[in-house]
Design brief:
Layout lengths: L20 H13 L3 H10 L10 E6 L2 E7 L4 E6 L5 H15 L2 E6 H6 L1 H14 L23
Parallel strand pairs: 3-4
Antiparallel strand pairs: 1-2, 2-3
């Protein structure tokens, strides 16, 4: 009998109970240290408020999931999908993220990032412009989000 498949970061909590918040945070920290090349390339464009002057965080624990990138000011989750992602399952997870947390998800494939990073950034800029700010004064004033040295400025 084959060994059961370990859940991916987007499957946390599936199958009853999930893992502890401490385990998720430790896993997210490992994922920040060992980012795949497509995520690393996108992060280089998002970090330090480089895209639209907005703060992004990487490998963020949200509920029972670890999302690839998150923009707190807009409530926008960005997922980078490899070849093994199932569009139907991902759509279910995206609906749950919106329902449970109020966060919209936008997805890009590894291939899109590696082959057309400029197009990905254009699409992201468009989505950010269309997405309402979560706080009354938008980027000028929002709750402080803790930042680790790993995330950059």
């Amino acid at each position: 009998m084959p060994a059961p498949k370990a859940p991916s970061s987007s499957e946390e909590g599936v199958g009853g109970g999930g893992v502890s918040p401490e385990t998720l945070r430790a896993r997210a920290a490992r994922m920040r240290r060992d980012m795949p090349e497509p995520e690393r390339r996108l992060w280089n464009e998002l970090r330090g408020k480089r895209l639209s002057g907005l703060k992004f965080r990487r490998q963020v624990v949200t509920g029972h999931r670890i999302v690839d990138f998150f923009c707190p000011a807009k409530g926008l989750v960005i997922e980078v999908d490899g070849d093994t992602h199932d569009p139907v399952t991902d759509a279910d997870r995206d609906r749950a993220m919106l329902r449970d947390h109020g966060f919209t998800t936008v997805r890009f494939t590894n291939h899109q990032i590696m082959r057309n990073l400029d197009g990905v950034l254009e699409k992201l800029t468009s989505v950010l412009e269309e997405t309402a700010d979560r706080w009354p004064k938008g980027r000028e004033h929002h709750p402080q989000t803790p930042s680790s040295e790993e995330e950059g400025a």
